[in-house]
UniProtKB/TrEMBL annotation:
<dbReference type="Pfam" id="PF13560">
    <property type="entry name" value="HTH_31"/>
</dbReference>
<dbReference type="Pfam" id="PF19054">
    <property type="entry name" value="DUF5753"/>
</dbReference>
<dbReference type="InterPro" id="IPR001387">
    <property type="entry name" value="Cro/C1-type_HTH"/>
</dbReference>
<dbReference type="InterPro" id="IPR043917">
    <property type="entry name" value="DUF5753"/>
</dbReference>
<protein>
    <submittedName>
        <fullName>Transcriptional regulator with XRE-family HTH domain</fullName>
    </submittedName>
</protein>
<feature type="domain" description="HTH cro/C1-type">
    <location>
        <begin position="23"/>
        <end position="77"/>
    </location>
</feature>
<dbReference type="GO" id="GO:0003677">
    <property type="term" value="F:DNA binding"/>
</dbReference>
<dbReference type="InterPro" id="IPR010982">
    <property type="entry name" value="Lambda_DNA-bd_dom_sf"/>
</dbReference>
Amino acid sequence: MTEARGMAAASPTARRRRLGMEMRRLRKDAGMTLSQVAESAECDASWLSRVENGRRSIKPRDLRLLLQIYGASNEEAEALVTLSRESKLKGWWQTFEQGAIPPWFERYVGLENEAASVFGYDNQLVTGLLQTEEYSKGVLLAARPEVPPERIEEQVQARLERQKLLTREIPLRLWAILDEAVLHRPVGGRQAFGKQLEHILELSELREVTVQVLPFAEGGHASLGTSFAILSFPEQSDPDVVYIEDLTSSQHLESAEDVARYNLVFDHLQSSALSDVKSKDFIARVMRDFA
């Protein structure tokens, strides 16, 4: 997968991740284990691990102590303290009512907010960034019929807010590969689904949006049964993240081996799918069945 990277909006989630990676690098450069640092700093090793993994924030006072233990320069220390403060700012997704964005999904939203590109494959549903309001509502109602309508509406609005990434000053680069099965499942009803297909075609005209269809005729492929997204970031020091989710949880794969594997899979899917032009024609033909 080779695409130019662009600038993106600052995200406290991405800042926390970058700070954690820098803290891990400095610790390893100092030749210390988590246990050794925990003993020197009189802190818990599991807490320190979560800081390095970008899962926990850290107070400037505690950060300065660790940096002193690692022998960081004054310049490095000030840059990381600034990064620490930025990591505590609130993201737009934290302004919604609790539950509008599931806790296990918040990290993805934070990373997506700073990503330069998202390359994904979806085998059952239209990817969230391309969903209409009615389609989103249909998805959420089907998944959680017990949730009150007002809570569903909050979740829909949060999803629509994410879509502003596609039209910001420097837009997110989105490359979405949709399995043909996605185009035959009328979530939200036939009329609403027809409008959803029309919406996909409209968004695919944006310069930074590419939509491909992986047809049934291709048979088996490299990602049967697994939807995923690969996020890339404007800072070269921020490695790609692979995101996978199920009904109640998610995974963020960050090892170089995992990321390389999914990039290879995405390349295979790109090659197997219809071209963007043929995909638009395909979607338009299917859309006529829902007119």
